[in-house]
Structure formats: C-alpha cells, structure tokens
Amino acid sequence: DVQLVESGGGSVQAGGSLRLFCAVSGYTYNRRCIGWFRQAPGKERGGVATTYTGGGSTYYADSVKGRFTISHDSAKNRVYLQMNSLSPDDTALYYCAARGDSCSSRPLTEMGYKFWGQGTQVTVS
Fold first, then answer.
1. Fewest CB within 10 angstroms: 32, 34, 105, 117, which?
2. In the predicted model, is pLDDT for residue 39 greater than 90?
3. 57-71, pLDDT tens digit by residue?
C-alpha cells in the first residue's frame, strides 16, 4: 500500500521555524511530483510547495516564497518542508501528497494528486 506519513508539526511563536517531514513508502519515489498542501480552519486546502523528485524542480505559493524551502532525499524516500519566519497566517493542517508526473501542469493545485497523507498540524501564535 502507498503511504505518505507526515511529521514535524507543532506549535511555534511567530518568527520561528519548523521542519516538516514526509515519508513515502509503497510507491515508486523517483520521477514523481510530491508536494505540501495546507488547510486552515474555514478555508479551502491549497498548495504550498511541490518538487519533482526526478529533476529537482520546485514550485512555491506566492505567500511562502522566500520563507519556505522544499527538498527531498531520494535515498530515504523523504520530502521536507523547511518553514522559516512563520506567522499566524501559516497556521494550518499540512498535508503531503504525490502524483505520478513531472509537476509540469499546475503543481500547486490538487489536480492529479492521487495519494495523500493524514496531515500534521502547524500552529503559530
């Protein structure tokens, strides 16, 4: 079975940092589009950052550019999200998701993402 398991969430003060982890198993990791999405209370889920594991291309939502960095480790089948300069607006449930293409088409929308994790909560106060 395909599993995406997120970890690393927690509570942090504004201006602080967190690093999220997404462990991928049961899925061919290479040459996939894997990314992070988030959903705040009362809001729709939206894309935060995605990366193509076959080439390293990255894509970011405007709201996180310059503050968040997505990376991955092919040897460990893990995707990371380093979040700096956090603000209360970043408070949300963060999900890891994967789809089987090169992130070439609208990588920050939910379109085509077949596999999702359960989410990890990030709270910024």
1. 105
2. yes
3. 999 999 999 999 999
